[in-house]
Amino acid sequence: MEISILLAEQIAVLFLMGLVGFLTVKSGKFKEEDSRIISNMVVYICSPCVVINAFQIDFTSDKLMGFLLAGAACILVHIILIGGGRLLAGPLHFNGIEKASVEYSNAGNLIVPLVSAVLGEQWVFYTTAYIIVQTILIWTHGQSVICQGQEKNWRKILLNPNIIAIVIGFILFATGIRLPYIVGECVGGFGDMIGPASMLAVGMIIGNVDLGWVFRQKRPYFICFIRLVFFPVIAILIFTFSGAVSLHQDAEYILMVVLLATSAPAAVMVTQLAQIHGRDARYASVINVMSVIFCIVTMPLMVLLYEALI
User: Fold this and answer.
1) 88: phi then psi, degrees, rounded to nearest 5
2) What distance in Å separates the CA atoms of residue 81 and residue 84, rounded to the nearest whole number?
3) Considering the entire predicted model, what is its pTM?
4) CATH number of 235's domain
C-alpha cells in the first residue's frame, strides 16, 4: 500500500509540471510551437544522458543476472504490446498515433524519477533494460508506425544519440569505467531534467486546446484503458503465474520495475516524434495528458494487484 501511495504522489508531481507548461501558453508567455525546441532537447540530449548515467554503477554478476532478467521480461512485454497492438489495430481501426500510444509507454521520462523516489536510486539501473528495448523499437518500429509508411533511414537510426548512448553505457558498465567528475555531473544534470522538461513540453502543446473538448472525446478513453489497464493486467498475470519471481533474489522488485514501465502512460516520445515528423502532435498529446491523469489511479492499482498475486 505504501508503494502505491508514493506512486500516486510522484505522478501527481509530474502532472503539475505539465500544468505549468499549459499555463505558460495560456498566459501568452510562450507559444505552442516553442515546445518543439524542448521536445528536441529531451529526445536528443536528456534521454541519452539518462541511459549513460544509469550504467555508472559497479559491475557484479548479481546485477548482470538481474539486468538480464529485466531485459527478458521487457522483451516479452514488448512482444505482447506490439503483437496485441497489431491484432487490435484492424478491428478497432487504430491510426498511427493510437497504435504507437498503446504500444509504447513513458518508461524513461516518468519511470526513472518514479523508481528513484519510490524504490531508491539503485533500482533505476533495471529501468534501463526497458528503456533500451523501447528505445531500439521506438526508433525503428515505432517511428514507422507514427509516420505510417515512410521509409526507414537506418543510418539515421543507428547514429541516433539514444542508440549511441546505449552502446556507450554498456561499454562503461562492462569495463567499469567511470566518467570524470565534471563530465558525470553534466550528464547527470541533463538526465535529471527529463521529467520536468518532457511534461513541460506536453503541457505547452495542449496550451491552445480546449480541455473541455478533450474530455468530451470518447476515443482517447478507450486508448487509455488499453494502455493503462488491459496490457498491464496481462503482464501481471504472466509475471505472477510463470514462476519468474524465483529466478533471482530481487526478482519481485525487478519485475515490479518492468511492470511500472508497462503500466505507465502513453510515451511522451510519441508526441515528440509526431511533432518532429509533422504528424498530429496535438492528438498524441491529448492521449498522453489523459493517460497521465488516469495513471494516478491505475498505476497504484496495478501495483496493488501485483503485490496481492505475488
Assistant:
1) -80, -20
2) 5
3) 0.83
4) 1.20.1530.20
